[in-house]
């Protein structure tokens, strides 16, 4: 199971299976920018406007 996850993660991140295996064997924390560089995320959300659908207005909550 571990090897399958490493292979899939490598395919999706662009990292080698060896890198994924090595990095997965220890605690590794990423800043948002580093996670993007590594290939773990596609983009870093800076504000709610980055993910709010176009044409929607902000709802006022209580």
Automatic annotation (TrEMBL):
GO terms for biological process: protein quality control for misfolded or incompletely synthesized proteins. Signal peptide: none annotated. Keywords: Hydrolase, Protease, Serine protease. Transmembrane segments: none annotated. GO terms for cellular component: endopeptidase Clp complex. InterPro entries: ClpP/crotonase-like_dom_sf, ClpP/TepA. It holds the Pfam family CLP_protease. Residues 1-20 are annotated as: Disordered. It comes from the Bacteria. Residues 1-10 have a biased composition (Basic and acidic residues). GO terms for molecular function: ATP-dependent peptidase activity; ATPase binding; serine-type endopeptidase activity. This is ATP-dependent Clp protease proteolytic subunit.
